[in-house]
Amino acid sequence: MSTSTNIPAMTPTTRRVRAYFAPVNRALGQPAVFDPSLSAGFSLTTPPSPWMDLGWVEAFSRRSVSKYGVLAAGSPANTQYQVRESLDATVALRFTSWSKLTMALAAGSQHMNVITAATPVSGNGNGSGSKGVTAVSLAATGSTAAFLAMASTDAATFQAGSLVAVDVDYTGQTGYVGSGVSAAYVTSAAAVNSDPDYIRRVTFNVARVLSVSSTGLTLAQPLVAGVPAATMKVQPILGFVDREGGSFFQEWSALFVIAGDQGERIFYYYPRLQAMGGAEEAATPLTAPAAAVTSSKPFTSSTASASVANLKNAAATHTTQAGSIPSSTAAQMLSPMHANQSERISLAASFRALPVTDANDGEYAVCFRTFVPPAFALV
């Protein structure tokens, strides 16, 4: 015989929100699925496929902006029914780490890889990168999601610690392009100058090289698209670039998890999210502002007390936006409050949720909220 001690329903408490994203299959219109009946107990550090862990996020907020109306009848008119006139929701957050994926999510449009440039030609240049070095072919066999097999002479052109993009040549394809993730939409070959490197320029199939051997490149992380096809090629990249503009919208499935302090979990599953703003950052000070005090008077206990009083007065009157700062004659100090101050730069992102159909009853929805109570809590 087993017994348990039940506890009253409790208020969830938490410190952080964890974010997971997965690509939407744009060509088929299929979002990634999170089924709480199958996966609610997953380890936060090892999410089920195809979800990618983007770590803890800050300033997470979600909002319903659906609109409601009424049907009235009678004289005087009185409300008989309520109806939903529109279905809409938004999400906002800040990513604390910068990566290919977090930058792309925050910017929303095509997100490009900065391919290492070929020998520069005088007068040429472009904000998203120039013509790249020649791509290297993979061996017919031997590659895995974390190892790129190639000829020894080709492998020798790469270095441990470098970044690479791995994808097929552009050969005139139209529609969504990019292996593993729909990275861009091509309307015509002319629109991308028939550039054979274009797909590698926008692909999410990128990784850091861990080591180089005579048989190929060992990667520090597996490729998003999994085992590469033998038709794919490899190019070195320097980093990533986004832009304010473009007609393409990234679309991703998102899962946000609140892990409560008492064992409870709250899930917010958004099958389809698109960015609703351009690239923005948010700065968070890491150190206390430093103020300098200068005076020609000898240091005594009385001047020290006066300096402390002056600093308190300066702090009380200082503002960070077009505010006033006391004059140096009055306060005997003044370097700006933000001089030499370290700041953490986060990626600010905001999204609009798009609808899907719930297979259980055919209703439209933009978000699914799941609550798993702690053990033995009454419901």
How much helical structure, as a percent, in the residues? 10-25%
Total E-strand runs: 21
Structural class: mainly beta
The quaternary structure here is single chain
Please state the average pLDDT score. Answer: 86
Rounded radius of gyration (Å): 27 Å
- Let me know the largest β-sheet: 7 strands, antiparallel
Order of secondary-structure elements:
EHEEEEHEEEHEEEHEEEEEEHHEEEE
Uncertain segments: 293-301, 311-337
Question: How large is the count of helical segments?
Answer: 6
The general outline is: globular
First-last Cα distance = 23 Å
Overall domain count: 3
Query: Strand percentage, roughly?
Result: 25-35%
Give an overview in words.
- There is one protein chain.
- By secondary structure, this protein is mainly beta.
- It is globular, with a radius of gyration of 27 Å.
- The protein is about 10% helix and about 35% strand.
- The strands form 5 sheets. Strands 6, 7, 8, 9, 12, 13 and 14 form a 7-stranded antiparallel β-sheet that branches. A 6-stranded antiparallel β-barrel has the order 1-2-5-18-16-15.
- It contains 6 helices and 21 strands.
- It has helices at about 35-40, 100-105, 150-155, 200, 300-315, 330; strands at about 15-25, 50-65, 65-75, 80-85, 90-95, 110-115, 135, 145-150, 165, 175, 185, 205-215, 215-220, 235-240, 250-260, 265-275, 280-285, 345-355, 355, 365, 370.
- The chain folds into 3 domains: about 15-105 and about 250-285 and about 345-370, no CATH class; about 110-240, no CATH class; about 285-340.
